Amino acid sequence: MGTGTHTGSENANQSSDKLLQILECLARQRLPIRLQDLSTQVGMSQSTVLRYLNALQCSNYIYQEEATSRYALTWKICRLSENLNSHLGLRSITAPFITDLVNQLNLGVCLVIEQDFECVYLDCVDTAATFQHTLQRIGKRAPMHATGSGKVLLSQYPQAMLMEFLSSHALTKYTDFTIVTQDKLMEELEQVRQTKIGIDDQECELGLRCVSSPLYHYSGSAIAALSVFGDVSALTRDRIDREIVPMLQKVTTTISERLGYEQN
Length: 264
Known about the structure:
Blueprint: H1 2-28, H2 35-42, H3 46-58, E1 62-64, E2 71-73, H4 86-105, E3 108-115, E4 118-125, H5 131-137, E5 141-142, H6 148-155, H7 159-168, H8 182-195, E6 198-201, E7 208-216, E8 222-231, H9 237-258
Antiparallel strand pairs: 1-2, 3-4, 3-8, 4-5, 6-7, 7-8
Helix pairs in contact: 2-3, 4-9, 6-8
């Protein structure tokens, strides 16, 4: 009886050791890794490693790239450690998706976070058609009430934080389309909460339209927004509804999963 219990404990310890070895090896990788390379690095058979990878993937601790079949950690691992530089890590995860969206839509795409009640552009990739707008925005801050990304991030604020924003920030008018009253902004934010889409319809810059969707991470909070932007002639209402919103939401859902987000 005692011997069986001891053997069971040893097997459990060995399984835990193998799992930790695989996690630590994945954490050391700068890029997603192939199964065979991971197997070599941890000194286990591919079948053994694959069994652990499948379990980790089911729990959303890792993901597998569809195009390359390589494996990498999601941000869910950050529940166990807060040592990840989130903004740097966020850019590295979103970069290929941004490039793909630009190529498929022939429109500009930006990655935006909130800082001190303002939008800050972490990344921006443009096309020839949107280049002039990108030069005006990249590396700069933008008002939250007049941008698609800002509306997305504002819509996620707790009520007390939203009231703090409204009491400390004037709703400055940038164009004739800018929302300048609290009632109108609150109405707009409620719509954004329901649709998970924020639209800037020439509210920050005449001739420019922007469509934004939130990025969630393992805490369940929206930590950034991904925005598609371009001239109003290229972002018609019909194209926004038919093509851009479905594509953008598919991408932000995938990115959020890689940030460790799990939908309830």
